[in-house]
Write a structure and sequence with these properties.
21 helices; about 650 residues; 17 strands; cobalamin; intramolecular transferase activity; TIM Barrel; MeMalonylCoA_mutase_a/b_cat; five-stranded parallel β-sheet; isomerase; alpha/beta; Methylmalonyl-CoA mutase; Rossmann fold; eight-stranded parallel barrel
């Protein structure tokens, strides 16, 4: 090593792009490299190979980490002890149980907490007044760990923020207390579809309360711009980013109209995005968010400041069946948040889709971050994805697509007006429906659900809930203590269609639920006979494909004791299986010679419906299953034939 560097490529033969393209063509049996391209939900092309020419780094205006316009993050050197804030969410309805969970998790590595507040206790901690909040936060040191709020339901928002502010006054030393009040009227409209008293009155309260809280708690942030509802409703990356920017701009306009100094907005706001399991795309999304925000600040002639970004692992990607795979999904989302430069990372519990998480769910959530931070060292380098041709190029393309979304929302009168008119919801619905169609055809696979399902998988634990809340609203005592002289300007409620959250596994989970209920009633699961033709080498691939597809709908595949050699033996094996339907599996050449006879023998033996794995058509074949077919539709047909009842 004459130059002093270890040449890692020294043991490999020299290769160039032409060699790679030639190898790809051979692997694809003559197909071009374009077959490896993929499209995002926004129509952006993901190429199999990126070159230096795809990203003009020489003329790149992004600067260095920690330098304006902060496109590469707020810090030039990550904190050696805590490169990002490990923020854990808490949603157990019982304030006493939540308190115990908070204290335990803070002892075990969580650096800040986020209380999901819903006074009814149906979707978060049942905080209704100062007493219940004090119960939830007993023993918590806000000078050491930030306390953040996640306002889940109606009656939340400024009222809960006021309660937290009142609690802070009781702690003493307000200059050192770290809060994230996360007041977000627009986010409340996105989630619930209603702002009681009207959006204008809500912003009058928000503007004045934010101003007072800034003075009282200098280490706190008071506002939030949250685009997670767009993601969780099935929106695309560009729709989520565009809505985030529209959210910020609409909020600043309304705050300014209420007398708020919008120069304070950037430093007082936490920007929150969801993170899915496609970490390459999610890293680019976080980088695109900083590009977009810098452009917004420039356009509004505001001082360029770094945005505080929170990345929260996606709820829509979590599955109820085979939930253990959610640990892998969460790990990918955590990686994206860390490498993408999020200031705050929240990882959901892997069992959240099943109910309220218990200790195992919260432990794996926090340890995912701790391992990523302390063992994998993800936070040791500032902007590790900087200069990566794929990430830089995709971030630019995402920013462009998101800017178009933002401009469209602006042309509709801003985010609130677009929501009131139902225009943004309609576009998100189109994206959601296209996404579900792709999932149904398994073009977007869901491991453990649409692919490689486990019919006898082990269940994951959830918390046992014994707490009930009778509250329907949050006390205004905290708010009134800070806004004594604020006149009541409430008017008619602002209403819009809420962005209802989805889960990507919805359709397959519905099928599994029906199959499970059928098994409980009948004492055995619904089943299909795997009718194989020819030797194992010929039918094995398609038989495995068929078992996997039908298992995704809770339908068990039953094989013959040995490979049937004649249609008559096949028919006898079908009768012995006790099944009512069958799927024929074999090679295309054998289908030409035997499929019709096999189908006739199965029908004569009592088969009410026959599927065939492949696209070969013959008399007696009722349906074909193949790569790209609508698996949900085929499974619904199979279940209906088997008498599986709809819920």
């Amino acid at each position: 090593m004459a130059d002093g560097f270890l040449k890692l490529s020294g043991a490999f033969e020299e290769a160039n792009e032409a060699d790679w393209l030639d190898a790809v063509s051979k692997a694809l049996k003559g197909g071009g490299v374009e077959r490896l391209q993929r499209q995002t939900d926004d129509g952006l092309t993901i190429h199999p190979l990126y070159r230096e020419s795809d990203f003009a780094s020489a003329s790149d205006p992004r600067g260095a980490p920690g330098q304006a316009p902060f496109l590469r993050g707020a810090s030039a050197e990550p904190d050696a002890f805590l490169p990002w804030d490990i923020r854990q969410a808490f949603a157990h309805p019982d304030p006493e149980v939540t308190n115990a969970e908070i204290l335990r998790d803070l002892e075990r590595g969580v650096s800040s907490i986020e209380l999901s507040i819903d006074c009814t206790g149906t979707d978060g901690v049942a905080v209704k007044d100062a007493e219940t909040l004090s119960t939830a936060l007993k023993g918590v040191r806000a000078d050491m760990a930030t306390i953040a709020l996640d306002h889940r339901g109606q009656g939340s928002g400024t009222s809960v923020a006021g309660l937290l502010a009142l609690w802070g006054e009781q702690q003493g030393g307000s200059d050192n207390l770290k809060f994230a009040f996360n007041i977000d009227p627009v986010g409340l409209l996105l989630r619930t579809g209603e702002i009681a008293g009207g959006i204008d009155a809500a912003f009058v309260r928000t503007a004045e309360l934010s101003r007072l809280l800034c003075l009282r708690y200098p280490k706190a942030t008071t506002l939030r711009a949250d685009a997670r509802p767009v993601h969780e409703a099935g929106g695309s990356e560009a729709q989520e980013l565009g809505a985030l920017m529209a959210h910020a701009v609409d909020t600043m306009r309304r705050l300014a109209a209420a007398g708020y100094d919008i120069n304070a907005y950037p430093s007082q706001t936490v920007f929150t995005l969801a993170a899915g399991a496609n970490y390459g795309l999610e890293i680019a999304k976080l980088r695109a968010a900083r590009r977009l925000w810098a452009r917004i600040l420039e356009a509004m002639d505001l001082e360029i400041e770094p945005m505080t970004l929170q990345s929260v692992s996606s709820a829509r990607m979590l599955t109820r069946y085979d939930p253990w795979v959610n640990m892998l999904r969460n790990t990918a989302a955590c990686f994206a948040g860390a490498v993408g430069g999020a200031d705050i990372v929240t990882v959901r519990a892997f069992n959240e889709a099943l109910g309220v998480p218990e200790e195992l769910g919260r432990r794996t959530a926090r340890n995912t971050q701790i391992i990523a931070m302390e063992e994998s060292g993800l936070g040791k380098i500032a902007d590790p994805a900087g200069g990566a041709w794929f990430e830089e190029t995709l971030a630019d393309e995402l920013a462009e697509a998101a800017w178009s979304v933002f401009q469209q929302i602006e042309a509709e009168g801003g985010l609130v007006q677009s929501l009131v008119d139902g225009k943004l919801q309609a576009r998100i619905a189109e994206t959601r429906d296209a996404r579900f169609a792709a999932i149904a055809k398994r073009k977007q696979p869901l491991t453990g659900v649409s692919e490689f399902p486990l019919l006898d998988g082990e269940a994951a634990p959830v918390a046992e809930i014994k707490f009930e809340s009778s509250a329907t609203s949050v006390s205004g005592e905290g708010l009134h203590s800070f806004l004594k002289d604020l006149p009541d300007k409430s008017g008619a409620a602002t209403k819009a269609e809420p962005l209802a959250p989805i889960r990507l596994a919805r359709d397959f989970e519905t099928l599994r639920d029906r199959a499970s209920a059928h098994a409980d009633r009948k004492g055995k699961p619904p089943a299909i006979f795997i009718a194989t033709l020819g030797p194992l080498a010929e039918h094995n691939a398609r038989a495995d494909f068929a078992r996997n597809l039908f298992a995704a709908g809770g339908v068990m595949g039953i094989d013959a004791d040995k490979t049937p050699e004649t249609p008559e033996v096949l028919a006898d094996a079908f009768k012995a299986s006790g099944c009512r339907i069958a799927v024929i599996c074999g090679a295309d050449k054998r289908y030409e010679d035997e499929a019709e006879a096999a189908a006739k023998a199965l029908k004569d033996a009592g088969a009410s419906r026959i599927f065939l794995a492949g696209k070969f058509e013959a008399p007696g074949i009722d349906n074909n299953i193949f790569m790209g077919c609508d698996a949900v539709d085929m499974l619904q047909i199979a279940q209906a034939e088997l008498g599986v009842e709809k819920a």
